[in-house]
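Quick board copy: two proteins, each given as sequence then tokens.
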Amino acid sequence: MSRNAVNVVERLQQAGYQAFAVGGCVRDLLLDLEPKDFDVATSATPEQVRATFRNARLIGRRFKLVHVHFGREIIEVATFRASHADEGEDSPPQDSENARQSESGRLLRDNVYGTLEQDAQRRDFTINSLYYDVRTGNIHDFAHGLHDIRNRQVRLIGDPVQRYLEDPVRMLRAVRFAAKLDFEIEQHSAAPLIEMADLLHDIPAARLFDEVLKLLLSGKGEETFELLCRYDLFAPLFPDTDEALEHNADYTLRLIRQALRNTDERIRQQRPVTPAFLFAALLWPALPERIRELEHRGVPSVPAQQQAAQELLAEQCRHTAIPKRFSIPLREIWDLQPRLERRSGRRADQMLEHPRFRAAYDFLLLREGAGEDTGGLGAWWTTYQDASENKRREMIRELADGPATSKRPRNRRKRKPRAQAD
């Protein structure tokens, strides 16, 4: 357990409130996994929690929470919540500041507070509904979460259809936990997924971007992708790529799987990963068809590629809002692909000095690994990077000589002989 989480729980208990470590940290510790963060549930309201800790900050409107800061570690503290159906006569109505739902049933605001038992039933999955009392060492399990951990199952609490309607992102969370923990999604929780996948179109694009990062940068990206495809949850996130999967399945699957495999390996090795490269790979299979359409309409090749990339990214951002800090390097990786082919003169050396060269080169190898024929371009750049100066000049000369030998000689008009003077 995090010492800071234990400190938060103990101080809240000393102040007269109920408090427990809750959710994923308890689940992961039971599975001998290292929790990434620690959450606390308490009977104290957010305002009472903030009054207890000088280093606390109140956040959120949809779900009011308190972040207690300990240097770089943040302990998230949430107040016990009740279902809207459990509200008493004195509770505020659902269109008040405390609770609000959309016409489809999606929770827009959920700050109806309740008891520990009510809070357990409001949580999404049984395996996340475990409350650990750090003082006594007891685990409170109101939803049979320990049973599902033993049986390696992801199970929703309550009626799956209703819970997905309240928050469609729960469908993505079910897939994420199943992939991360190597669990199965329990059959009743899995049954509505395909039919309800389109509900994700109603989720704000910025929130879906955050969810995609959790899904694909967890170290289990390849397994997550397979589950997203199985339950038709990939299409609402990447509609253009899903269309490419239908028209060119072999190439698209090879490219995406290899990109995710590489990302998972880097995460296992604790090497840095960037969403820009992964999103470049996820969207690349949808780009060629857009380029061909523009070229068919008479747009030259280079402007066609630039326009297609801009349109594809704009369309994608309506589904998952990619921030500029990632979309700009993504575009650079794409734009450098045709430039890697132009190596005459000083261009190759200038390319090596480009800050995005390594990412563009890795992306070129990824394309080749998926089956694209680039005429050995990846091998050429692999050799060129490690070659001596003389070897590099020789490689550039060979490029210049190669096309010249294959060209047909120009037919020059024969000059008429000059008339000789009499």
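And the next:
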Amino acid sequence: MGFGSYTASDWAKLKKSKNLSAGQDVKEVFKKTSCDPKYDPKFIGTRECFDSEDHPHSTPIVVGLDVTGSMGYLAVKIASEALNDLIMKLYSTGTVEDPALMCAAYGDYADASPLQVTQFESDIRIAEQLLELYFENGGHGQVVPTCLWEFLSRHTNIDAINKRKEKGFLFTIGDDANIRKSDVGDTVKRVIGDDIGKATVNSLLDEVQKKFHVFHIMIGSDGNPDILSGHRIVIDKSDIDIIPDIIIGTIRMQKGEDYDTVLGDCDKIKAPLLGNALSQLSLTGTGGTLRL
């Protein structure tokens, strides 16, 4: 996937046709009442992110949203504004060459559909597919981004890695740091169908890091200071407008730019909030192993 280009006019047409606005209820934006099989990892062999004539240097970027009950406001914000803002800035700033975005929705381990994944796309299909995801609105206290890690490590075929040994970028966003650690294998087998044997949360994290730089944007208080230490950014709920800027800034710093340069290019109004966010990162090296 990944052909075509994302344009402001295509987004304007989609937003008008879907009547999207930040003030809508989550059920007005995400209208699916069950998971579409084309986004259910049980029915997906491999998601591909290949170079093309349009995009010869594809860079995979995954935005994973916590879709448990408390996160409806964020999903609406991402769908109606922030995703478009992120894509336009990726293209306008040249932060990465040929960005190809996948959206993912992960929930609680007890949900009927704890994981959904779109294709890697480079045009308006990014937003179209996000709107087709099912917002289950569940939550029993233990989220499973681990299933997303396992899927990305074992069910993706990526030219950036295969041809250039360049990792993609994974950003999960949510307000729950309570990752399901028990029965990891049972959960992955139920959700994806893979028998992962004695794999653990940390071994799955180690594995996905071979393909992706992994980051988590935590909304609200940090209930678990150990989660992705140095690759975790905590922001207030009132500051979600800067999430696209956080993602852009984090990618730039991961690629070697220094904090002051990145902050100097930021909108002056956003600079204090973005500075506080990016100062939480520890990106002195790219090969270190994160631990929970």
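Board note added afterward: The chain has a mean pLDDT of 90.
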